[in-house]
Amino acid sequence: xxxxxxxxxxxxxxxxxxxxxxxxxxxxxxxxxxxxxxxxxxxxxxxxxxxxxxxxxxxxxxxxxxxxxxxxxxxxxxxxxxxxxxxxxxxxxxxxxxxxxxxxxxxxxxxxxxxxxxxxxxxxxxxxxxxxxxxxxxxxxxxxxxxxxxxxxxxxxxxxxxxxxxxxxxxxxxxxxxxxxxxxxxxxxxxxxxxxxxxxxxxxxxxxxxxxxxxxxxxxxxxxxxxxxxxxxxxxxxxxxxxxxxxxxxxxxxxxxxxxxxxxxxxxxxxxxxxxxxxxxxxxxxxxxxxxxxxxxxxxxxxxxxxxxxxxxxxxxxxxxxxxx
Length: 325
Prior knowledge:
Layout: H1 4-26, E1 33-37, H2 44-60, E2 64-68, H3 75-82, E3 90-95, H4 97-105, E4 116-126, E5 128-131, H5 140-148, E6 155-158, H6 164-176, E7 181-184, H7 188-197, E8 202-203, H8 207-215, E9 220-224, E10 250-258, H9 263-277, H10 280-287, E11 292-293, H11 298-318
Parallel strand pairs: 1-2, 1-3, 6-7, 6-8
Antiparallel strand pairs: 3-10, 4-10, 4-11, 5-8, 5-9
């Protein structure tokens, strides 16, 4: 039997061993946070990360360093973060590719759900069905009729195989029963060029990327994804209101960390993010990228990512989309 003095000594030793980690949690954050953005510097996703971190820095009272880690559709960044210490000092800006479409279509070296700790959602942005102005259709119904009369002659572009622009196009084909040729590009920019020049007839880009071309008249919008019409395209209906049930593929952005982050740290970060999302200037800033803020708790964000992966996995299976890398 352990004596009373011996028991007290053991408890004291255990407490002193745990003290540094407990103190580290209680005063989090007490050093610079690394925020990994899985795309190259510049562009909408990078801007969202920088705008978010600029305000998180003020709320948390600690500096945050942006690290752009591009490559592999975000896979390299995801592997980097997943292997990091789950102490709250390495975070990842997750988005629809890293925790939505890529897990549904590719063999990855990370598990999008098990290898990460959700912190919260930042916001969402719709995709929009755009056609070349030369296409004789001003609405989705007329476009469907136009394509149906020319099987195999109408092509839609995408930012690449397995991208959201690809899968939204396949979802449209599935729900309409149409046959359109898919032409994947290395990014949405060349896909935009070929749609504008008439090499392709349709594209399903993000609203942020398409908006300048829509405003200049070089692209014609027919419908947007998402639950309601977008304030920047109030005259353009949603697919849902046109009768395409469950047509809800959207760009989205959020924050995750490595699996196993302490709940106290997750709570601190989640509450800080909520304060950022409540700031009107932040809302105004992201509206320039057609992003609508969408505050979600860590649990709700986890459920959102799970549902998104399941949605695209089912579509990829139905359309026989499986990519090696």
